[in-house]
Amino acid sequence: MNDGRRFAGWLCVALGFAVVVLLGYGVIDPIGLSTTDAPDSLAAVLYGLLPTVLGALALFVLGLWLLKGGRRDKR
Description:
75 residues, 2 helices, transmembrane helix, membrane
């Protein structure tokens, strides 16, 4: 497997994991959640977290795809 592809894969996995951890600790604010007005329900909070969490999930899945992509069984 290409070393650049492996490095990019591990980088994407690490960044996706880091975004979720930083979001959980409150270091970064969610993209879709406004801090000026407090949401009045749990559904509004979860809907506000959705873009950030989906972005982190996309980075993680991209990293896994990059890591897994070069291992095809050739018969």
